[in-house]
Structure formats: structure tokens, C-alpha cells
Aminodeoxychorismate lyase (Agromyces tropicus), 590 residues
Amino acid sequence: MAETVTFLVDPLPVDASTEFLEASFREIEPGSGALAVNDFAPHRGDGVFETLAVVDGHVQEVEPHLARLANSARLTELPEPNLEQWRLVIRRAAERVPAEGEFALKIALSRGVDPGNTPTGWVHVTPGADFAASRERGIRVVTLDRGVARGAGERSPWLLLGAKTLSYASNMAAIREAKRRGADDAVFVSADGYVLEGPTSSVLARIGDVIVTPPPAAGILHGTTQRSVFAYLEGQGRAVEYRDLTVDDLRGADAAWLMSSVRMAAPIAELDGTSMPVDHEATAELNAYLLSPRD
Amino acid sequence: MAETVTFLVDPLPVDASTEFLEASFREIEPGSGALAVNDFAPHRGDGVFETLAVVDGHVQEVEPHLARLANSARLTELPEPNLEQWRLVIRRAAERVPAEGEFALKIALSRGVDPGNTPTGWVHVTPGADFAASRERGIRVVTLDRGVARGAGERSPWLLLGAKTLSYASNMAAIREAKRRGADDAVFVSADGYVLEGPTSSVLARIGDVIVTPPPAAGILHGTTQRSVFAYLEGQGRAVEYRDLTVDDLRGADAAWLMSSVRMAAPIAELDGTSMPVDHEATAELNAYLLSPRD
């Protein structure tokens, strides 16, 4: 058992024989030198990733994350990932951490070492932070203009707005800006005033009896946690909807959350310095669902 | 002597004693595992870089590149780089490659290993490609919408448009899109129709007797090669100007180039499938200047 676990992965082609799977990855000392400086991941932020929650030994929503990894690979013209390999690698990595508690399991696929095109991969598992306050009391959020109009991702696919790439410098800068303003997190807004997504989360709002989220066509990543919550709510007979949201719509919502795989449902308690209603009951229900074993 | 050289660098604080400089970096086998997978460079594309040309043993424009590295570090809130250290590291790396020929020398500064904030750094030198055809016959270029309006970088500094970060996935996707369209390279255009920059270059145009380039306030990186060429031309008594350029302005120019540190002046011979005039005399003069030793 270890609190932090790192595997280096040699990504296999989709048609590789299953006999190669177990030998296609190896555990290394966390923090040790592993990637070449001219691997396209550090060289160009040119790779894709997913972060999965591990809760009491169960890896949440492996298939939706792998489906999105494959979609990100397609959008960035990386070789199609061998999902059977990634399923095994994820399982083996999760087995190496304690069977109790929360962990964040990141999988990444890079274009490989420049100038070749043999992808490299890795898994890195770390203990989850203590999200109790974020999940219960909520978070303070600021809106930040992303500069692009709604729908820019469809007109300009080279912006990779729908792919989860390793190029997150601007996402990290947005979180620093939020903290500078005394907040905890940010929500990106389009140049034409529509709510997009958080730097590492999806935005959900309850407006009356309907739970709404901006459509992926707005130029955002389709959230795995948002989708999981939508499926759960639909199963409960509740109304969910993809709908364009202005900042005023969000400000006037009956409740709102940032949703992400590891922090899960964090209610927005303050938006741009103004208090927002926190629906404690719905939040507790959502996090109970999100923390339960999900496949 | 080696054709490819890699140094790992422990970035020193600006007030470090000079006695530590020589011991602050070490050569490693190129392509060997060096960076932790949770170093912020592969983890988040969260770091900054510069690429310098080495021409017959001379590193071009070290000080302008270091000034821009320091500016990128400031914009991304990385610790201020110790420029004395980087000068030494650059010199030592350049000494390891043959004294004839062209090389590309990349320096990079990452935020370090998550969750710490001790930066990591590296230098990687590779042989320059054969740019003869690009510099003489020219390149085919397509315009690609970047989705942001001109000036978005000033309104949204968290987009880091003026910083040279390691998050280049979208720049690489733009070059792939250009190749898919049968071209060699791309020029990003703002959502409101203004010429911005290439994915790895600046745009210059000759309009009558004036050499023009878009102003950095448009939301672009201030090009070191563009600045060097402007200084050279001004020294020759030629008119240069920062000026907003529409795509029509570029299409109607008397000549145009993409300028970058290693490929240098590449005339645009074709823009979106339409031929453009190539000023062979001016191009030869610019590349003769750019290939001469510059500090």
C-alpha cells in the first residue's frame, strides 16, 4: 500500500494481443525522473488526460472517463487508446492505494518523444484533498471572460475546446486570479456573456425545478460528473436540461454547483462577491450519490 | 561534441551566490527519463520557454530571449529567473554542439513538481531542420480563426496570450490543420478579422515602403525575431510600424513573412490558396541579417 503511486505506461495499439497487457506498464518511484524533456507532454502540453476519483477502493465511472479519453485522443489526432490496457492499468494502480479514503487517479497519454509519434503514458494516484468544507459550506466563485464567443469551438476545432489536453496553463492562471480576488474558483464566461465551465469543473444550476448545464456545443468539455448527475437525476424523475445560461441566469439561479470528478458537487455560495442560495439538501444528496460506487 | 544535448537545470533564486552557478545544472542522456510525471510541465503545461537559434556556434539574441522568459515568468507568476544562471547554462549547452551549422536551443522553466513550488528547468539542443526551401521559395499559409477578439489578452490576462507557455497543444493542432489543408503553416486571425500571429511565429508584411506587424496589444506574443528585424531595418533608415492588419490587408500586401527564431524569415508564397508576391531580394537580405551573429 502507498499513498502516492506512479505507473509508466507504454500505450499499446488497439489491436495488441492481450498477452502484452500486463507487461505494458511498470510502477516507478513517485517523483522520480520518468519523462524525457522533449516528450511532447512537457515540450508542448501535447497530450490528453482524465482524472478519476477512487473512493474506498472503487474507481468511479471508468468507462465514461475512458470514452472521453478516446474522444480527446481523436480530437488531437493521437493514436486511438487501447481501452483494455487502460482498464487494467487503472485497476492495478487503484489496487496499490489503501482500500479506504478518497484518491485522485490521473491517466495521461502524450504524443511521445519529439520528433517520433510513439505515445507515452502514465498513471499517477494521489490522496484526495479534504473537500468537506467545499462540499458542505460551498465555494466562492468569480466569473472570468475567456475571450471566445459561445460556439467558437465548433468554428475553430484547432482550439481543442472539447478535448481534455495537458495544456492547462491558462486554467491554472484562472484559478490563481480567482484566489487573488479572494475566491476559491472561477467560472469562464464567453465573450458574448454565456456561462461556459470552470477551469476544472462543469457548472450546474437549479432554476425552478430544472437542473441545467451549458451544452457542450458552447465550446466546453462535456463533464463526466455532470453527465453522471444528469443520469442520476433523470432516474429519480427529475428534470434536467442542456441550456444556454447567461451570467444573469446563473446569478438568479435557485442553486448552483461546480461539478468535478474528485471534489464532486461544490455549491456556489458566492458569485462575484454576492451570496447565492446553497441548497444543502440537494447538495448532500448529490454528494452521497457521487461518493457511492459508480460504474 | 554531440548533435543533441540535454541539461537538467535547478533554477536558482535571483539572489543566489555566483559560486552555485556551475553546479546548478548537469548534462543528461538525451531522451532519458528526467521529469516527474507530476512536474507541472507534463502535468499542466504550466511553465514557460524560449527557443534560440545557434548559428555556427553563436547563440542568437540571448538577452532578448531571456528578457521575454522573465516576462513570461512574471505573467504566469513563476519565480523570477536568475538570468546569470541561464546565460551560463545556454553558453555551456551551445559549447557542446558542433561549431558549424544551425541548432535550436530550447530553455524551459516549469513550476516544479506538484504540489510544491520549486521550479524545474531544462535546456534541449537539437539540429536545425533544413529550412532552405522555406526561406527561399517560401511557404503556403492558411488563416485560422483563434476565436478571440483583438485585444482579448488585455481584458483577460489569465488567457496568457502574451506569455510563451508550454501549453502549445492548440498551436500544434493549428499546424496539423494547415497541413491537412495542403499548406505548411498557419496564421491566427482574431474573431473580428485581424491578423494575429503564427502558431510559432510573428507575421510581417511590406505595404508600400513600410514593414508592418500587428501590435502586441492585439493579444499576441511579442516576437524576438520581429523586434530584431525591426531594429535592423530602422538602422537601415527603413520605415517600420506596429499596425492593425486585417486579413485583406495581409492578402493585399506587397510581400509578407512569418518570422521565427530558428526558421527565420519565411516568405508567404500562398495565403489561403492564393499566390502572394515573394520579395526574394528583401527575403535574402533579412535572412542574411538573421543568420549573422546577433546579440
